[in-house]
Design goal:
This protein is α/β, with parallel strands linked by helices. The chain has eleven helices and 13 strands. It binds nicotinamide-adenine-dinucleotide (NAD). The site of nicotinamide-adenine-dinucleotide has 26 residues, from helix 1 and strand 5.
């Protein structure tokens, strides 16, 4: 399948990843016919004016019919989500995203869409495999037996399953990527939904600009993670929808790092060292998580490769610009 032969609708296009996907597809000559998000247009991270931009709640079945009308390929990036602080405190809201994916699948099937992309998450993985920081990278089969992240992860796992059965029973070609921590410019960096890379960059920048050289870190700082730069996420998502991969597949970096090391990198950009305090009662997620990329390497001969230092530099610089715009000197 080549996306250039399709008319594409992108759901969740006002968000971080959706906005980048619309931009990159258009840049490469793909016919994106529609971008949809529940947020008012002036809150979208990126607005591409040559596309039909629609404000609509995709939990509503009729809006899903309108969203996919005339499209032959659909990206579903729409979900109520955020970093650990948000998903641990909003489990019901996260689970309600099941309405979005369910109605989008139904509308896509009824409208004769040929390819459907679902953005799943590493939060589907069994928590017992993520108890210690010295992780064994998670391979796709580690989602079962199921013990997903409560709320958000269970919704993703259920929706993956819906995709699988829509393909088996109705022939709708579903492609499912399990994203591992995506970061980059034009995403959430404040307000409570931001994830660790943006939150750490912001905190380091606040310390630099205020002169108060202190930082609060959620957890003990020894938690391990991998973080994927947005350009790799966009490239991999496109490769996956264009592929014949009929099973959920990891899309993540395998560069493992502790949260303390993430802070080290951000401090090096700022040229300062901060006094660290550790908030052990704050939401911190699992102790360790990394992406096993054997399957994607096997299928696509490719894996995300932007180094964290390189990607974080761009993210840090973008957040600094946003902070200066928000509070002019
Ligand atoms: P985001 O919050 O920036 O974007 C999601 C967008 O969906 C938002 O703009 C939001 O307004 C929109 N949305 C929410 N409810 C909606 C509704 N009812 N109708 C229409 N639009 C609605 O998040 P993101 O980081 O761009 O994530 C995109 C997708 O990737 C999500 O499905 C998310 O669960 C998944 N994912 C992201 C990450 C990550 O690290 N960013 C990791 C794993 C999975």
């Amino acid at each position: 399948m080549n996306l250039k032969d399709h008319k594409v609708a992108v759901c969740g296009a006002g968000g971080f990843i959706g906005g980048h996907i619309v931009g990159e597809l258009m840049k490469s000559g793909v016919n994106v016919i529609r971008a949809i998000d529940v947020k008012p247009l002036d809150e979208w991270y990126q607005v591409h004016t040559s596309v039909e931009n629609v404000e609509a709640d995709l939990k509503d079945a009729e809006n899903c019919d309108l969203a996919v009308r005339g499209a032959t390929a659909v990206f579903n990036l729409a979900a109520d989500m955020g970093g650990m602080g948000f998903i641990e405190a909003n489990r019901a809201l996260c689970m309600l995203s099941v309405l979005i994916n369910t109605h989008l699948l139904l509308s896509s099937q009824q409208a004769g869409v040929s390819h459907f992309f679902f953005s799943s998450s590493a939060c589907v993985y069994n928590a017992d495999k993520q108890r210690t920081p010295d992780v064994i990278p998670l391979k796709e089969s580690d989602a079962y037996p199921a013990l997903a992240e409560d709320g958000y992860g269970w919704e993703k796992l259920f929706s993956e399953r819906m995709c699988r059965h829509f393909e088996e029973d109705f022939g709708l070609q579903c492609r499912v990527a399990r994203y591992h921590n995506v970061y980059g410019p034009n995403g959430t960096w404040a307000g409570g939904r931001e994830k660790a890379p943006a939150a750490i960059c912001r905190k380091v920048l606040e310390a630099k600009h205020s002169g108060r050289h202190e930082i609060e870190i959620w957890g003990d700082g020894h938690q391990t993670r991998s973080f994927m730069y947005i350009d790799d996420c966009v490239k991999g998502s496109r490769m996956i929808i264009e592929s014949d991969i009929h099973e959920p597949i990891n899309l993540g970096s395998s560069e493992l790092i502790t949260i303390n090391q993430l802070v080290d990198i951000a401090e090096s950009f700022a040229g300062i060292k901060l006094k660290r305090s550790y908030n052990l009662s704050a939401p911190k997620g699992v102790n360790g998580r990394n992406s096993d990329n054997a399957l994607i390497l096997d299928y696509l001969k490719w894996e995300p490769s932007t180094s964290l230092r390189q990607g974080l530099r761009k993210t840090y610089d973008w957040i600094e610009q946003q902070m200066l715009v928000a509070v002019p000197a």
